[in-house]
Amino acid sequence: MKVRLGELAKGQAGVIVAVSAADDSLTRRFMEMGLLEGCRIELVHAAPFTGDPIAVRARGALIALRRREANQIEVEV
Amino acid sequence: MSTLAQESPLIALAGSPNCGKTALFNALTGGRQKVGNYAGVTVERKQGSTRTASGRELQILDLPGTYSLDARTPDEEVTRDVLLGHAAEERVPGLLVAVADATNLERNLSLVLELRDLGRPVVLALNMMDLARSRGLELDLDALARELGVPVVPTVAVKRRGIPELLEAIESRLGALPDAGAPRPAADWKKPKAEDVRLRFLEVDRVLRAAVRRPLAPTLWTDRIDRIVLHPMWGSLLLLVVLALMFQAIFSWAELPKTLIQGGVGWLGQTVSTILPEGPLQSLLVDGVIAGVGGVLVFLPQILLLFAFILVLEDSGYMARAAFLMDNLMGRVGLNGRSFIPLLSSYACAIPGIMATRTIADRRDRLITILVAPLTTCSARLPVYTLLIAAFVPDRPLLGPIGMQAGVMMALYLGGIVAALGMAVIFRRTLFRGPTPELLMELPTYKMPAWGNVTYGLWERARLFVRRAGTVILALSVVVWFLSTYPKAPAGAAGPAIDSSYAGRIGHAIEPLIRPLGFDWRIGVALIPGFAAREVMVSALATVYSIEAKGEADPGNMTQALGQALHQSWSTATAASLLVWYILALQCLSTVAVTRRETNSWRWPLFMLGYLTVLAYLGSFLTYQGFRLLGWG
Question: What is the Cα B363 distance to its own chain's centre?
């Protein structure tokens, strides 16, 4: 099932299938941080109170981002 | 710079954030560093020198960290421009040292490939090798060098391991260069497209498949610590504890060194007074130079303590977590988590707060944070708050154990926060419109802070601060001293000496302007030195109201007498209006000077001074007129 990264719950994992931000520069930044198609990704932490931003593990590192931006990444769970 | 330095080869260090590049720079250059700014921008430029085993001198340039050459922030643009040889007033580096964190190769090698493709000689420093090995990583270094096409040197910068080998690799690469004079700028670099990044990472994976014999085990420690640090409840509590400790340190641990400096300054003033005959020179040195510069130096312990905290939190990896936890709250006023620590620091003093905004990558975020930082209640306001509250607010219980005086003090602090956050919202919607910059940051693995780096960082901050006190503050103190000393009162004049000085005349001249705020000329006179530094107003008021300390040993006596005098001559409305003025107005030349330094232009400090003065005027006007309408005039 395909979902957006920002919709994952804490502890959920999947594989990135599409990185396509409306802004091409953001797409490149996602990739530079290791958020690329084919990578395994896991939502490991969510900030207190609102659950936003989130921290995901990808390519061995922990990356923090807001759900709004995370929604531009599609994940197969 | 000497001609020799110009001729020795320039080596640029480039690497991703958190790869230990600065530690490597410190290990390479030791104390032989020069810190400045790049031409036209506020990006810090660090250059140092070192010698190879054969005695050849090398100039080392520490470039700002970046994940790629596809730059988005001023820091990253500098890195790109220097590497491409497009930076104004910068030599083109002859050799690049790519620094990569051996525990984060999956990400860091991407930049290494970009650097290699620039066509300049590259040496790869594989840093933090000890940590990588302890996590089980087995690398075939020969295969890695072969697949990348660049020499690879394993290093542990914080322990100075691998440094001679790195210098040797640099020298042999330099020796192999065809001697074609000065290196030339890269001509054919193009901004990568998303597809290029994708291909580059496929290449990273290919290189790693060829070189990695046993992969890195996950970081158990970081995961365990994060389970508490990023826990919705424990994480927030821990952040509170860390902040409480920081405040405690700033307010109480700094007290002893602060008293010592104050004592030293006082002693120096007295000594000079006894050595020099009474006259203009003595007055200039004692009341102008020593009092002015000394008044700023007393903040040095607080500033260093605060920076010690910030550097340790940054180095250990906690700072990124604090920004993560606070991002949502800061996001509501249009800022991001990175603005949290600078604003918090401004509670001690806006100067370290503004200096701490360097960790904010986005230029607009950084400017907004700098512009609102002076609204948070710094410690220099406390003497004035204390004086006015004691004189005008009755010591009666307000609510339970909280007295009215404490209540007013809290309201003043709250007023500062509300004003700062409110102005941040306004700036975000007017001057700095546009999309909220996204939050996208790595939460690095936890590390023991490298004490050498912390010490270097502190030394650097202390040096910058003291140099500023010796230049800008010194000049301004002399101006303020001159205005409040000359022309001298004619012999036998009745009023205080300041009355006939230029400051006194200015006080009289601006009286019509400040009358709607409930201020008379005497407050006007005290506001003038108060503009240089807030807390100076207490002694200025004492001068204007001719209150002399009865016996040097008891300054509390003077404050009390001053409070009584103010109570008799001011209405409650005037006192309230002055308090509101103190919440809002930018009365701190040091803040203006540091903003000038940090933004590299006069535009922002002048704008800051302008908007805060207008804001303070409006606030005081409304307060005074409101109080009078309510019958407290």
Answer: 14
Rounded to two decimals, the ipTM of the complex is: 0.95
**C-alpha B147: how far from chain center:** 42
B433 token code pair: 């419109």
Task: Indicate the residue of A24, A49, A55 with minimum beta-carbon distance to B230.
Answer: A55
My answer on whether omega of the bond before B487 falls inside 30° of 0, hence cis, is yes
Structure-token match 């404050």, residue found: B559
Angstrom distance (rounded) from CA B454 to CA B461: 11
Element at B497 (helix H, strand E): none
Specify the pLDDT at position B3.
Answer: 45
What is the domain partition of chain A in residue ranges?
Answer: 2-76
B324, A55 contact by CB (below 8 A):
yes
Are B501 and B617 in contact by the 8 Å Cβ rule? The answer is: no
3-state secondary structure of B32: coil
Domain boundaries A2-76, corresponding CATH code: 2.30.30.90
Kindly state the tokens that stand for B206.
């290919």
Residues 6+ apart with CB under 8 A from B581: B517, B616, B619, B620
- CB atoms inside a 10 Å sphere around CB B282: 16
Chain A residues whose beta carbon lies within 8 Å of the beta carbon of residue B131: none
Cα B6 from Cα B90, distance rounded (Å): 11
How far is the C-alpha of A9 from the C-alpha of B460, rounded, in Å? 44
Q: Per mean pLDDT, which of B227-231, B374-378, B381-385 is the most reliable?
A: B227-231
**In the beta sheet, which residues pair with residue A56?**
A43, A63
Report long-range pairs for B522-531 (Cβ below 8 Å, ≥24 apart): B523/B574, B523/B578, B525/B484, B525/B498, B525/B499, B527/B587, B528/B480, B528/B483, B528/B484, B528/B503, B529/B480, B529/B484, B529/B503, B530/B587, B531/B587, B531/B589
User: How much is the pTM?
Assistant: 0.81
In the three-class reduction of DSSP (H, G, I as helix; E, B as strand; rest coil), residue B7 is classed as helix
C-alpha to C-alpha distance for B80 and B70, rounded to whole angstroms: 8
- Contact B13/B97 with Cβ under 8 angstroms? yes
The first and second tokens of residue B303, run together, are 């500033």
Q: B324, B326, B362, B445: which to substitute to probe chain A, counting the most A Cβ within 10 Å?
A: B324
Amino acid identity for residue B286 in this structure: V
What is the distance in angstroms between the Cα of B233 and the nearest Cα belonging to chain A? 7
Q: Which amino acid is at B147?
A: E
DSSP string of B97-153? EEEEEGGGHHHHHHHHHHHHTTTS-EEEEEE-HHHHHHTT-EE-HHHHHHHHTS-EE
Digit-coded pLDDT (tens) for B534-589: 877 777 787 777 654 444 444 556 677 888 888 988 999 999 999 999 999 998 88
d(CA B188, CA B431): 37
DSSP-derived secondary structure letter, B381 = G
**Chain A residues with CB inside 8 Å of B216's CB?**
60
